[in-house]
């Protein structure tokens, strides 16, 4: 069976064999797209972060990963193709006037959204695999920030990407280790 897809800024369509599916993008879905550089771009429309009492809406970008099994851009493409057209509308917890088509859904029933508690539970299960028996399970944001710093990403870029207020937020709450493979003595002497 051949599958064809097409989309414009306001609508989408899929033709699978002799079946035809189409629909309109929700306002939040219309703000998400993948450009020719395989960069997924979206806006968080109801963020927790505020400045002078107003939510900070910012453009976010996710780059493709070379391994398609780990690639969030590829995962989003498949989601759009196979799941996004199925309705799963929920009201935003902090902004009741906002209804959106949920991105995170139950694996067996795409019409049911995953709750924040379910997502947190899944993340804790996955991270518990990486932690020694009896150790405290770190926050996912702390793992990501620490791995990024260990890979040589500058603190400024990590702080900007996470939308933290400053270096102290990263250093005091999200940096898990200060271990470094850089020999400062050899570098300066």
TrEMBL record:
GO terms for biological process: DNA integration; DNA recombination. Keywords: DNA recombination. Signal peptide: none annotated. Gene3D superfamilies: Intergrase catalytic core. InterPro entries: DNA_brk_join_enz (IPR011010), Integrase-like_cat_sf (IPR013762). One of its GO terms (molecular function) is DNA binding. This is Tyr recombinase domain-containing protein. It comes from Smittium simulii. The lineage of its organism: Eukaryota, Fungi, Fungi incertae sedis, Zoopagomycota, Kickxellomycotina.
